[in-house]
Amino acid sequence: MGRAWRWDDVRAHQQKDDLWLVINNGVYDCTSWISQHPGGDVLLHFGGRDATDAFAAFHEPNVRKRLQAFQVGVLDERDRDVPEDLRDFRKLRDQLWKDGWFEPRFEGVAVTLLTLACTAAACLWFTIQCRSRMAHLLGSCLLGIFWKQCLLFAHDACHRCATRIKRVDRTLGPLFGTLLGGVGAGWWNRDHNMHHAVTQVANADPSAGCPPILCTDSLQVRSVHWITKIMLKLQALYYLPLCVFVGRYNLHLVSLVLCPPRQRARDMILMAGYALYVSKLLSFLPTRERWLYFFAANSVTGILHLILNMNHYCMPMQASMKSADEMGFFRFQLTGTSNIKSNIVQRWYYGGLEHQIEHHLFPLMPRYNLARVEQYVIELAKKHKVPYQTFGFFSANWAVLKTLGAVCMK
């Protein structure tokens, strides 16, 4: 087991060239692992901290044995106090793993792929076989839905919960996300892992607003320049059109420019394939209709940005990771995340994002199991008086607009 370390000792090692983590009361020197870590630099946010629940969220239980190579001791027994809600959450998570809730089901993946195929076939029919402008417009909407659902399936694969076969999921992510969906998987993986680890932490969560263009909390306002003041006053007005009409094109560019070097060549080749098949599809249309078709399809996909944001933008933001340490993983995630009310059709459309609370607590759980474990999370939240927020689609977006407007007032 090695030497017993106090928290003061562990906190002295939180730099990139000297990084220690605590996982399940074991103390690990992960300095040499940072450059090889598949999740990127997310480790840096847990330097000198307890990473037990973040580690459990991103890794299967059998990965724990690999930690032995990095162990330098254990946490002193005097520093092992764990809040009661967090202890109960850890028991729930362990039980869900034992009961098979994290195991993908063939029919779940099959239904997702079948609906994607049907959507693509309908899009091609209305786009290529039909001649009316209205039919082509319907085809563009179906293309937008196809892109959106491809990105949602890529989201499953990049979380390694599509098939649970690492090599297969690593192939499906770029295939559906980049080649078919038009967003670089390398950039997405890095940023999304960070988002899950530091949810709603100001200036750390890459998905928490987009300062200075969108500030969801006064903690993100770094400048009092007159341009910043104007943008803060206008952000509630331009938020919806920015997400729906601009966000999609922004992701095309950002996911390539900010792609990690190791995945850049792959993602650029796949994005070229995406551009090629979209250009070919547009070539079947009359020249005068092509731009409208392309714009309409991207705008339909752009609704995904509203769905991605409405689970978090209206929730409280934390000033630093110290809040996560004080609250514990369970309370921390529920404080910054909300769910969206949905029926069976809407669940397909949202692709699991409607159960964002459960997804943040259990990122490796397949989307079709999230609704089924919701009751366990609600019971645990009620027991420990932790807020569990649920909105409708329109009420969630209205809450986001009010949040954006309130930042200006502050």
How would you sum up this structure, described in words?
The protein has 410 residues and is of the alpha/beta class. It is built from 16 helices and seven strands. The protein has a five-stranded mixed beta sheet with strand order 1-5-4-3-2. A two-stranded parallel ribbon has the order 6-7.
Task: Describe the SSE topology.
Layout (H helix, E strand, L loop, with lengths): L2 E3 L1 H5 L2 E2 L2 E6 L2 E4 L22 H7 L12 E5 L8 H15 L7 H24 L3 H26 L7 H15 L4 H13 L28 H32 L3 H22 L4 H24 L11 H6 L1 H7 L2 E3 L3 H7 L5 H6 L5 H17 L5 E3 L1 H17 L1
Parallel strand pairs: 1-5, 6-7
Antiparallel strand pairs: 2-3, 3-4, 4-5
Helix pairs in contact: 3-15, 4-5, 5-6, 5-10, 6-9, 8-10, 8-16, 10-16
Task: Write a brief structural summary.
The chain is of the alpha/beta class and 410 residues long. Helices cover 59% and strands 6% of the residues.
Features of the shown structure:
7 strands; alpha/beta; five-stranded mixed sheet; single chain; 6% strand
Distance between the termini: 51 Å
Q: How would you characterize the largest beta sheet? A: 5 strands, mixed
Strand order of the main beta sheet, please? 1-5-4-3-2
Regions with little confidence, pLDDT below 50 for 5+ residues: none
**Helical content (DSSP H or I, runs of 4+):** 55-70%
Pairing-aware structural class of the strands and helices?
A: alpha/beta
Mean of pLDDT: 93
Number of helices: 16
Instruction: Bin the strand percentage.
Output: 5-15%
Q: What's the total count of β strands?
A: 7
Rg calculated over all Cα atoms: 22 Å
Helix and strand run: EHEEEHEHHHHHHHHHHEHHHEH
Question: How does the overall form come out from the CA principal axes?
Answer: globular
